[in-house]
Amino acid sequence: MHERIIGGFWKELDEAERGTLRDAARPRTYAAGMHLCYEGDPSDHVIIIENGWAKVTSTTEDGHEVVHAIRGPGDIVGESAVLGHRPRSATITALDSLRALVLSASRFTAFLDDHPRVWRMVSGTLVRRTDDDVRRLRAKASADGAQRLAMLLLDLAEQYGSTIPTGGVVIQPPLSQSELASWVDSSRETVARALKIWRTRGLVGTARRKITVLDTDGLRSYADGQQVNGHGLGDD
Predict the structure, then answer these.
(1) Distance CA 96, CA 175 (A)
(2) Is residue 37 part of a domain?
(3) Cα–Cα nearest to 233, from 212, 218, 216
(4) Quick one: what percent of the chain has pLDDT higher than 90?
(5) Within 13 Å of residue 122, how many CA atoms lie on the same side as its CB?
(6) Residue whose C-alpha is closest to residue 173's, from 27, 97, 93, 70
(7) 120 is in which domain, residue-wise?
(8) What is the reported pLDDT for 5?
(9) What mean pLDDT is predicted for residues 27-49?
(10) Are residues 130 and 105 in the same domain?
(11) What is the average pLDDT score of the chain?
(12) How far apart are the C-alpha atoms of 88 and 90, rounded to whole Å?
C-alpha cells in the first residue's frame, strides 16, 4: 500500500467536497517520466495529485526545456488553462511514480459552480502562483546563479521539506542538477560547483536527486549575497 500525503488544494476541501470530486474523477497512475499533459494541447481536464511529484515545464524555440514549478501531493494542475479556455501553457511530467485523480473540464467547472467557496480557493491559488512567478523573475534580475539556487532550495525546504532527526530538512521532490539549473536560469556547472562548496561547508547534503538543507542560516547568507567564512561564489 502506498503512503498517501495530502496537502495543497485537496487539504483545503472538506470531506463532502472531496467525496464529490472523487466520485466524478477517474484514478490514474503515471510512471516517472510520463507526461500528465502537454504544452499546446487542448485543456479538457484537470488533475489532482494524490501521491508523487511532477515538474511544470515549457519549451523554448530552440527546444530547450525550462522548469517553472513543482507540484506535489494534494496539488491541482491544469486548472488555469481550463478556466481560461485556452491551450495548455506548459507540459507536466511525473518525476517519480505518481497517483492522481483526473477530472474532465466540464465536471470540474460544474463542481466549481456548485461550490463557490472552492471557486475562491482556486482563484487564490492562481494568484499565489502568479506572485511566485513574479518574485522569481525579480530574483533573476538581481541575483547571480548561486544566489538564485540558494533561494530556491530554501523555498523548497520550507514548502516541501521533511525534517529528519539530525535536524536537517530533506527536500522531497526528486530534482536533478540539470532541473535545478533550468529552474534558476543558470548552468549545470554553476549548480554543481555551488553544491560542492556548500557540502564542504556543511550547508547541504546531496545524493542522487536528493538534497538535504543542513544549515538554513548559512544557506540564507548565500541567498542574501553575503560571503560565508570570507568566501563568496562568483558565478552566472
Answers:
(1) 10
(2) yes
(3) 218
(4) 71
(5) 21
(6) 70
(7) 8-139
(8) 45
(9) 95
(10) yes
(11) 89
(12) 6
User: Are the C-beta atoms of residues 73 and 49 closer than 8 Å to each other?
Assistant: yes
β-bridge partners, 54 = 71, 94
Q: Given a cut of 50, is residue 94 above it in pLDDT?
A: yes
Pick from 18-27, 54-63, 192-201: least confident? 54-63
Strand locations in 76-120, DSSP E?
76-77, 91-94, 98-104
CATH number at residue 197: 1.10.10.10
Q: In angstroms, rounded to a whole number, what is the distance separating the alpha carbons of residues 50 and 205?
A: 28
Q: What is the pLDDT of residue 140?
A: 66
Ranges 32-41, 139-148, 162-171: which has the least confidence: 139-148
Looking at per-residue confidence, does 230 or 182 come out higher?
A: 182
Q: In terms of domains, do 129 and 156 share one?
A: no
Is there a domain that residue 229 lies in? no
Close Cβ partners of 234 (under 8 Å, ≥ 6 residues apart): 144
> Which residue is it, cell 467525496?
19
Rounded Cα distance between 81 and 37, Å, is 11
The number of domains in the chain is: 2
Return the closest-CA partner of residue 90 out of 123, 71, 62, 67: 67
**62 contacts: CB under 8 Å, gap ≥ 6:** none
CA 62, 65, 68, 71 torsion-angle sign: positive
DSSP per residue over 185-217, as a string?
A: T--HHHHHHHHHHHHHTTSEEEETTEEEES-HH
